[in-house]
Amino acid sequence: MKKRIMTLAIAGVMSMAVLAGCGEEAPAETVVAEPTAEATEAEATEAPEATEATEEVSEDVEAVFVDGYYANDGETDMMLAFFEVGDADIAYVTDGENEFCSEYTVEEAETDDGDAYLLVSFTDVDAKLGYIDNGDGEYYLVDEEGNIYAAAQLTEDDVEDLYAIILGGSDAEATASDDSEYTYDSGFYVTDGSSDAVICFFAGADGTQVAYINDGENEAFAEYDAEEAELDDGTPYVLVTVGDEMLGYYTDGEDSFIIDGDGNVLGAAELSEAEANAILEAVAE
């Protein structure tokens, strides 16, 4: 993965986990304002209802496709599909590379421009995706950063291959469960253009402390060792070792820095939780 992971995270790729198990009831027809450059008044009606409890899907439960949308503007491969599985409401989501299915909740939201849309939050995965269905054949998907993408409505034929995922789960389900056990602590990435280096820390539910480091060429993700070190000018920093890889970092007031393997001091900024989770999910692949 190497540089690809950092690219995914900093570019703001949806923070999606790999497949987690599935369930359902889906969206009824909604009416919201079509996106415009200016804020518009709109109401979202009959938002999809979702069940609160997640239950294991038995083999004899039938999945029923309710509704869904896929981006068709060529900028992204996002897809959002709603299913009913027994008594559960399940959404299937993909960005073209990662995918998952999860129970969900829906609430009304607005973009920075005031465009109304329905925001879908997922019970099993730390991710969100919105959509606009204005009732006259115009559809849009809205990512976590509020970017709007032209979309089309999914048909039954479009989702035919998804039933096995929703009812059968996958081996990646265990991986997704493992990922959810980690909580982002802190991290930094180089911002001065000299390197793609990144370092971030996660706390496991069982108390373990793990780190991800990437010097732009090599990467490692595991439990780590940290020790105090000094630059040639006497500035103290923390040297982190993960497997055979090493990076250092320190903060000076509002400024942050990463120290590479050659002792170069690189300007850095703090990773957001979304960026760190994207890295975690990519590492899990």
Fold topology:
Layout: H1 3-10, E1 63-71, E2 79-85, E3 88-94, E4 99-110, E5 116-122, E6 128-133, E7 139-142, E8 148-153, H2 163-168, H3 172-179, E9 182-190, E10 198-204, E11 209-214, E12 219-223, E13 225-230, E14 236-242, E15 245-252, E16 255-259, E17 265-270, H4 273-284
Antiparallel strand pairs: 1-2, 1-8, 2-3, 3-4, 4-5, 5-6, 6-7, 7-8, 9-10, 9-17, 10-11, 11-12, 13-14, 14-15, 15-16, 16-17
Helix pairs in contact: 1-4
Describe this structure in words.
This protein folds into two domains: 18-175, no CATH class; 180-284, no CATH class. The strands form two sheets. The protein has a nine-stranded antiparallel beta sheet with strand order 12-11-10-9-17-16-15-14-13, with helices on one face. It has an eight-stranded antiparallel beta barrel with strand order 1-2-3-4-5-6-7-8. 12% of the residues lie in helices and 41% in strands. It is mainly beta. It is elongated and about 65 Å long. The chain has helices spanning 3-10, 163-168, 172-179, 273-284, and strands at residues 63-71, 79-85, 88-94, 99-110, 116-122, 128-133, 139-142, 148-153, 182-190, 198-204, 209-214, 219-223, 225-230, 236-242, 245-252, 255-259, 265-270. Helix 1 runs antiparallel to helix 4 (273-284).
